[in-house]
Amino acid sequence: MKTLLRIDASIRKAHSYSRELADYFQNQWQIRYPDSQIIYRDLAAEPVPHLNQQLTEAFFMNPAPPDVLALSDTLLNELQAADALLISSPLYNLSLPSTLKSYIDHIVRIHKTFTYAEGGAFRGLLNGKEAFIIHAKGGLYRSLQLEQLDFQEGYLRTILNFIGIEKVTVFPLEGTRNEAYAIKAMEEIRHAIMACFQTNL
Ligand SMILES: Cc1cc2nc3c(=O)[nH]c(=O)nc-3n(C[C@H](O)[C@H](O)[C@H](O)COP(=O)(O)O)c2cc1C
């Protein structure tokens, strides 16, 4: 049985392009894997708190006080149980929503999702998983060669690679501030998701 961990980050519960595309992806996933388990995290409905000193110190303790690590451990267990990770996220102020960054800060943990490698480098520990990112932006970046202004996509790819998830597929939806443009672009992303299921999943 396959397990999909879906994480939504848009602050909009309704009329969110990224959530709508994630619904489409999840629907395709459930058609492809009818008996799959879906683990769902809505970071707007249930935000993960910022890191604090007590929690980050507990990351390095052995044994650590379990009550301090309870939420981080739960998030980590969900991630470890998943075969695939689906993140739907808007671009906010050229970067990722702070709720998504807080989530990431809870699951990037020494000796759990990454460790030290020979020569001082790092090695990711979450091997054999893949990730899909649905990324909504109000403006246009690719066609205007302004990708360097988007600090989310590269960061998400890098941090997922860092914890060992090397196969990352991004579905970037641009131009949502123009509804007519967005409707057409949504259709293209749905085709890309469908094609991904036909060829890779
Ligand atoms: C606080 C905030 C900041 C935003 N910053 C940017 C930005 O830097 N660049 C951009 O292209 N769009 C920006 N937008 C527009 C969103 O990326 C766009 O509306 C996107 O469709 C939101 O995702 P959603 O439809 O899933 O809610 C911002 C929107 C909000 C609410």
TrEMBL record:
<dbReference type="Pfam" id="PF02525">
    <property type="entry name" value="Flavodoxin_2"/>
</dbReference>
<keyword id="KW-0520">NAD</keyword>
<dbReference type="GO" id="GO:0016655">
    <property type="term" value="F:oxidoreductase activity, acting on NAD(P)H, quinone or similar compound as acceptor"/>
</dbReference>
<comment type="function">
    <text>Also exhibits azoreductase activity. Catalyzes the reductive cleavage of the azo bond in aromatic azo compounds to the corresponding amines.</text>
</comment>
<keyword id="KW-0285">Flavoprotein</keyword>
<dbReference type="GO" id="GO:0016652">
    <property type="term" value="F:oxidoreductase activity, acting on NAD(P)H as acceptor"/>
</dbReference>
<comment type="subunit">
    <text>Homodimer.</text>
</comment>
<feature type="binding site">
    <location>
        <position position="10"/>
    </location>
    <ligand>
        <name>FMN</name>
    </ligand>
</feature>
<dbReference type="InterPro" id="IPR003680">
    <property type="entry name" value="Flavodoxin_fold"/>
</dbReference>
<keyword id="KW-0560">Oxidoreductase</keyword>
<dbReference type="InterPro" id="IPR029039">
    <property type="entry name" value="Flavoprotein-like_sf"/>
</dbReference>
<feature type="binding site">
    <location>
        <begin position="16"/>
        <end position="18"/>
    </location>
    <ligand>
        <name>FMN</name>
    </ligand>
</feature>
<keyword id="KW-0288">FMN</keyword>
<comment type="function">
    <text>Quinone reductase that provides resistance to thiol-specific stress caused by electrophilic quinones.</text>
</comment>
<comment type="similarity">
    <text>Belongs to the azoreductase type 1 family.</text>
</comment>
<feature type="domain" description="Flavodoxin-like fold">
    <location>
        <begin position="3"/>
        <end position="192"/>
    </location>
</feature>
<protein>
    <recommendedName>
        <fullName>FMN dependent NADH:quinone oxidoreductase</fullName>
        <ecNumber>1.6.5.-</ecNumber>
        <ecNumber>1.7.1.17</ecNumber>
    </recommendedName>
</protein>
<dbReference type="GO" id="GO:0010181">
    <property type="term" value="F:FMN binding"/>
</dbReference>
<dbReference type="GO" id="GO:0009055">
    <property type="term" value="F:electron transfer activity"/>
</dbReference>
<dbReference type="InterPro" id="IPR050104">
    <property type="entry name" value="FMN-dep_NADH:Q_OxRdtase_AzoR1"/>
</dbReference>
<dbReference type="InterPro" id="IPR023048">
    <property type="entry name" value="NADH:quinone_OxRdtase_FMN_depd"/>
</dbReference>
